[in-house]
Design brief:
Strand content: 25-35%
Order of helices and strands: HEHHHEEEEEEEE
Mean pLDDT: 82
Oligomer: single chain
Radius of gyration: 28 Å
Shape: elongated
Distance between the termini: 84 Å
Helix content: 10-25%
Strand order of the largest sheet: 1-5-4-3-2
Largest sheet: 5 strands, antiparallel
Low-confidence stretches: 223-256
Number of helices: 4
Length: 256
Amino acid sequence: MSAPRIRTAAVGLLLATLAACGDTGALRGAGPTSTAMSPDRLWPDLAPASSPAWDYDDGGAELMRGVTAPGDDIHKVNPVAVVRAELAQHPDEYTGGKATYYETARRMADCADGVAHGRCPVLTPYYRDLTGDGRDDLTLGFRLLPGNQTAVRVYTFESGRLVQVMSNDDAVTGVELAGRSVIIRSPSDIAGYEYRFQWTWDPDQRVMLLTHDEMLRTGARNGAKHRSASPSVPPRPSPSVPPRPSPSVSPSASGP
């Protein structure tokens, strides 16, 4: 080896030695580790329940009568027409003498220029394949008035018929689409927390099911409100809807 190469190798070795002086390369402690706690099964002799004590919001499907589109292209469906179909199918909630959301029905007259204009309660629609069939589905929201709640719906086409496969009414702080799921965030009455609900498409039941219902820390501790921001306008209860055994939709299927 020539002298220049020997000197270069020596300098490299010296630099590596100096760099290692500050770090021995030994393992470092990460601090004490908490003791693992194994799960304890409580009351093992308690007979397991065979049915729920009350009806959970287990999802359901509803045929939207009179709403069609060429080639089942959901982009060609008028969102205002979809909301009008729901109002017509639920008169007790929207148009009856004691309708809870009578103001929503009244303001539908302001939707002549389309959604998200002026006082029209229908929000901007979003399109994404949530059912996994390779075609876009419709995620639609509209204000439930009077009050501070928002209706969130998902629709898909099945054999030429528009079907509502997800329905949720609540005070809403945010809505997200992720994969095959709709995630809805709602305010909590506990400061620094929010409710988060995740609805996910189930290919067997052919509806979106409430797969996650949790309270999460947000960090903010001021200005928290109860998730039902208008106590006089409670969220619409969801009747128990038996799962559909096949992809077909019964015209008598009831919505949540």
